[in-house]
Every structure is written in structure tokens, then in C-alpha cells.
DUF403 domain-containing protein
Amino acid sequence: MLSRTAAALYWLGRYVERADFIARLVEATIRLDALSARPAGEAAWQSALAVSYTDEAFAATGHPAVQAHVARFLTLDASHPGSIIRCLEMARNNARAVRTALTREAWTAINRAWWLFANRASTGGATETLNLVEQIKGETRGFEGATHRMMRNEATLLIQLGAAVERADNTARLVDVKYHLLLPAGESVGGAVDRDQWTTILQTVSAVTAYRWLYSEGLRPDNVIDLLVSRSELPRSLAACVEETVTLLSQLAKRTGLQGEADRMARARLARCQKARTPDIIVGGLHEYLETFITENALLDSAIARQFRFL
């Protein structure tokens, strides 16, 4: 396989997963905004910008951090790489470059998602925006399903590897939303608004039912953190993404003979994650743990690029 083909497949997986994450982030922020009293509502949208690393780009627009402006910025604004439309455009370009490696269903899902933005100038109000992101999530889930039905070869494994690396990064950022999001004045940790915020994060990763299955207590922040960080039963948890990355790299090594730095880094990260315990993570600082994880994920991404000769 040509190195540019491998790179296109890997980044196709990453961009589709990133579009799905931003859609989920917008959805979560709309719900958090609805739960928060001003000025905490603006803090919700500032947190969305912070965890998507688009806060500086948005500040340059001069607009206030309210739903109408931030939702449009994260979905429709093609002037920066952190919007859904740019992610889908890049995914579509990469898919076109490797069109013969994809099934008709996989290509159609990407193309349909991209066409959702045709002639659209505004996301509308909260209801219209939620409808839009739900459609985007539907198409990205369709692409993921189509990928799992493709022939299991190097092309499929590279797409799934890109998605796993991106998903790990996104889950870490999503959990970190709670670090950036302040409770309204007068609200206590563990109070109604705090619980609603944690519930919204669970809803964003479709983990409400999983939480109820795995924890007999009511909603507790430490259990939510444990679920999203340490429980491999949840496909979007950090633990599950780390395990999947190791498995996919191993399968690619068997098929391509390319094995090296990325495999070692992925296995070392898996060993660290398996030793980590949620109470220790919380005591040591959840935000610091997540920042370290995000940095390690970026280093792994670079190692993958070198190992498979993307550069």
C-alpha cells in the first residue's frame, strides 16, 4: 500500500470521528446551557471552545460566546479546521482519494453528511441545531457501521485505527469539559445542577444505560469518571480506546510487517492505564491526568505517521 493511501485512510477515520465528536459536543453544550443560569450559560459555550481548542480562533471573530455564534462557529464556519463542515470536507477529500478501497455504503454516508450543509447559512435555534447534529451523528454512525461490514484488510484497519486514536482524544476532552465548566453561583458540588451536568456528559457518549448497568448507586461523579476513563466495557472510554489501538496496531503489523515505535508506545500506555485506579487519578488531579493523556495520544499519532510512512 502506498504511504499516501495509508495516510488518507487513517485520516479519513480521524476526521469522521472528529465530526461526530464536535456534533456531540455541540449537543452536550446546548443541554448544559439550558441547565445553567447566566452567566454560567456562557461558561458552557466557552468550555466547548476550550476543549475543542478553538477558543482563540473564536475570540478573533469578536462575537460573544453565546449559542447562536458558537454553534455556528463549530458547525458551519469553514474558516477554521475545528468546525464540522471542515472535518467532513477533509473526510470527503480523503475518501475520494481512496474511493476504490471503500464500499458504496461507506462513501454514501460521508457524502450525505457533507451535503447536510449545502446552502445552509445558519444553524437556527436550539431545536434546529439539535436536529442538525443528530443527522450528522446518524451519518457518522452509518459510516462506522459500513466500515465494520467492509472486508477486514489493511484499509479497514487503518480507518479504524484513526477512529480509535481520535476517539481517545475526544473522550479525554469531553470529560475535561467539567473541569472548564463552572457551577452557577450558589450551586454546590453534588447538587442538582452538578448532577445534571454529569448526566449530560453521559448522554453525549450514549453511556447512561451503561452507567446504570455497572453501578448500583445513584449518579456519582467519581463513578462517571471511572466509567469514562477506566471501564473497557464502554466503547468510548479511554480504556477501551487504548486497548483497541493496541489490537489494531498488532493486526496491522501481521498484515504489513510494519511494527515498531508506535506499537511500543501503545503497549506502554495500555500498561499504565491498566495500573491506574480512578481514586488515585482524582486525588492526583483529573485535569492533569487528562492533559497528560492527550499529550501522549498526540505523540502516539506522530509515531504512527512515522511507522507507516505517512510523512
User: Anything to note?
Assistant: The mean pLDDT is 89. The chain has 15 helices and no strands. The first helix runs from residue 3 to 35. Residues 1-150 form one domain.
